[in-house]
Design goal:
Length: about 300
């Protein structure tokens, strides 16, 4: 039986869709049976990135109970499978996203990895995506607000019975003021699964004449190399995290060191604020969400 992962973050624009597409392809290139799911049923950006938003049968039809899931799964690059969403607002409005869990469960025997591209925020469709999976990978930028958002998502995921297993740091530039992977790991209390640098080739993936995941068009760029390393990690290889971002010179190093000492109290404040106050708010706002007993989840290596 395979493992299902939700690629989630507090806000939009952190790179969830980009990472789902490229990571799915990287896992398929390693001979794994992979299904990626466009669980952002309102925006369907993953379907756009793979050029499959006009597929005749989509996740909308499955969630409406009008089609079988097997009819909504299509062949995607490198032998990967893809369950797209549609762009129809009319069907989106009628969709029952709570069926997503059953849909994913029915597919787990057929794949090694199922990756769900989640919508942003903590609205109903996000909760459905988080509660449909075994494990959650949180995508964050190396800045405090993004990490605070990831922490909120982590708390919500735990409440829904999904297991947050790791963090993917995206848009790493190696600039002064960025929070280091070690500190991010400590703040979220999760290991780092990947460090993806800001990469112009990735930025352009939605801008080319033919929109396409960067792994297919620029397989050797630094951003893709980082995603390949993440696929190695998920398939059980020991990897050294390296973004390819140039190390700062001695002056940059001293600045960085200095900024770490200056930043500590701020980080501590954020962590305390989110954990003590905001987490309570999040918890309160989800009193409606039914308790799901936490099972022991085996993470596939
Ligand atoms: P989300 O799904 O979290 O909203 P997307 O994957 O759609 O985020 O990414 C938002 C934008 O950022 C897209 O234009 C994408 O090409 C760009 N992007 C994502 N990751 C990177 C990166 N590492 N470097 C440069 N641009 C990136
Ligand atoms: Mg997206």
């Amino acid at each position: 039986m395979g493992t299902s992962y939700c690629i989630a973050s507090g806000k939009g624009g952190t790179g969830k869709t980009t990472i789902t597409a490229n990571l799915g392809i990287a896992l398929a290139q390693r001979g794994k049976k992979v299904l990626i799911v466009d669980a952002d049923i309102a925006m369907a950006n993953l379907s756009l990135l793979l050029g499959m938003h006009s597929s005749p049968i989509t996740l909308h039809d499955v969630l409406l109970g009008e089609s079988s899931v097997m009819d909504a799964i299509y062949d995607a690059p490198e032998g990967m499978s893809f369950l797209p969403s549609g762009l129809s607002f009319e069907s989106y409005r009628r969709v029952d996203s709570e069926r997503l869990g059953q849909v994913i469960d029915s597919l787990k025997d057929s794949y090694d990895f199922i990756l769900l591209d989640a919508p942003a925020g903590i609205e109903k469709n996000v909760l459905a995506a988080l509660s449909a999976v075994d494990c959650v990978l949180l995508v964050t930028m190396p800045i405090s607000p993004s990490i605070a958002d990831a922490l909120k998502t982590k708390i919500v995921a735990q409440r829904l019975g999904a297991k947050p297993v790791g963090t993917i740091v995206n848009f790493v530039r190696g600039e002064k003021g960025e929070i280091s992977p070690d500190d991010i790991s400590k703040m979220l209390e999760l290991p780092i699964y990947g460090m993806v640098p800001y990469d112009d080739e990735i930025r352009k993936s939605f801008m080319q004449e033919k929109i396409s995941p960067t792994i297919l068009t620029k397989p050797n760029c630094n951003g893709v190399k980082a995603i390949q390393a993440m696929a190695d990690k998920l398939t059980g290889k020991r990897v050294k995290l390296d973004t390819g971002v140039k190390k700062p010179g001695i002056l940059g190093f001293l600045n960085k060191l200095f900024s770490i000492f200056k930043r500590k109290p701020q980080e501590k404040r954020i962590k305390e604020a989110v954990e003590k106050k905001q987490s309570k708010e999040v918890e309160e706002s989800f009193e409606e969400v039914p308790e799901i007993s936490e099972e022991s989840i085996e993470i596939k290596g």
